[in-house]
Amino acid sequence: MQKPNQWVLLMSTSIVSFMSTIDASIVNIAVPKISRDLRIPNNQAEWIVSVYLVLICVLLILFGELSDQVGRVRLFQIGTVIFVLGSLACGLSINLPTILAARVLQALGASMTMATNFGIITDIFPLSRHGLALGVNSAFVQIGNIAGPGVGGLILSIASWHDIFFVNVPIGIVAFFLGHHFFPHPKPLRTRPKIDIWGFLAYTGLILSFFVMIFLGQMIGFGHWKIIGLAILAGGFLIGFILIERQQAEPLIDLRLFHNLGFTFGILSAMLVYMCGYFNNVIMPFYLQDRLLLSSGLSGLILMAVPIVNVFSAPTGGAISDHLGAEKVSFMALFIFLVPEVIFILVTPSWSIIWLIIGLALFGCANGAFQNNPMIMGNAAPEFQGIAGSIAALGRNLGMSMGLALATSLLYHGISLKAGQRMTTYPDQHPDWFVFGMHYAYMFSLGLILIAIVLIGIVLKRQTRRIS
């Protein structure tokens, strides 16, 4: 039986997780209003979204390594305070430089909390309850990823864009004081932590070149020579990072982590699932509003089928994984994904909307049941829990970014194939071209799930061999 304060601590970490993940997507819907209010072009307003996402990816690994040295709780609490201050500063911003500076502050705090929350949960809960506890936290994280546009739209319908940031302040303060009262406060392992500077610089170069490649590729096409050059540069930074880490006595990332196939394939399969989730975020709003001509309110309600089912399936899947194992539960969840993917590949405007709701609900069920966090953390040794949690969060953010770019590129490539010319906007005069592009994109999404099935299948097969 768990002590009550363990569940209070879980709620405290999960609330902060929800806030830090929802702020990666909630601002998207407010960009047009921010652009008008601050009198800046839309492409500059998009920096408000990009700087947050990119900086989190840059800092996650650094804070994961630090947390294993100075203590996860201390870093999480500091991160919560910084995130709240950053949110307050965002809400008070009056021009582009101030809001960008505030988003940097927000990202600094968010990366501290994202890098430590999984490690804190595995510390305070016994091994037999890791699946359930991480499942509950996963529900908050996944809902934060999915519900951003809907929540942002609701706030904007009754208040200003400033309030999107202000709502974080009281919630964050409550979460901080709950943690301050209930969190254990162990002494840090080191008073003067060591940082692998050269490894961090190589890693930063890798992340920055990767994201510039993604963002620029969406504008000029991924076959452009500049994108190919950036891909080569990112590859060079990756090779340099690996070489540096192998020579370091105390590397930024201990590459021995990836010798565990369960950990490595857990990260890769989680990235694939998050990529597929962004196909829905990108494509479904267009299909519902522009092709089916539904109102934004009704479209939002239909899309809420994913997070509503997700909030129940994530802790349920976590509890089951405590008995069957996270890999087995995740493997079964991946097969559930196949049903909605096939529905989205075949659905046409003549189908009843019920089929779309069923598909989205099943996607939410599979998304929650997929136990990526228990699978990843369970395959990392106790001394690597901090950095493992950071890598898990990094995989999530990279999956979302790659999913956004891939879904957009495949959708418009499919539309272009049907049109016989390059298309970069919704084909108002030929709405059936969009349906073709949607089916084309979802066929690739189905392929990503099949790859994830193969990866987890290999892990399960190796586990079976070890037992026998």
From TrEMBL:
Keyword set, alphabetical order: Membrane, Transmembrane, Transmembrane helix, Transport
InterPro entries according to UniProt: MFS, MFS_dom, MFS_trans_sf
Localization: Cell membrane
Cross-referenced Gene3D superfamilies: MFS general substrate transporter like domains, Multidrug resistance protein D
Coiled-coil stretches: none
Transmembrane feature ranges: 7-27, 47-63, 75-94, 100-120, 132-158, 164-183, 195-221, 227-245, 257-280, 292-317, 329-347, 353-370, 391-413, 433-460
Domain of life assignment: Bacteria
PROSITE patterns associated with the record: MFS (PS50850)
Membrane topology note: Multi-pass membrane protein
One Pfam family cited in the UniProt record for this chain: MFS_1
PANTHER family according to UniProt: MAJOR FACILITATOR SUPERFAMILY MULTIDRUG TRANSPORTER MFSC
Name this polypeptide is given: MFS transporter
Organism name: Lentilactobacillus raoultii
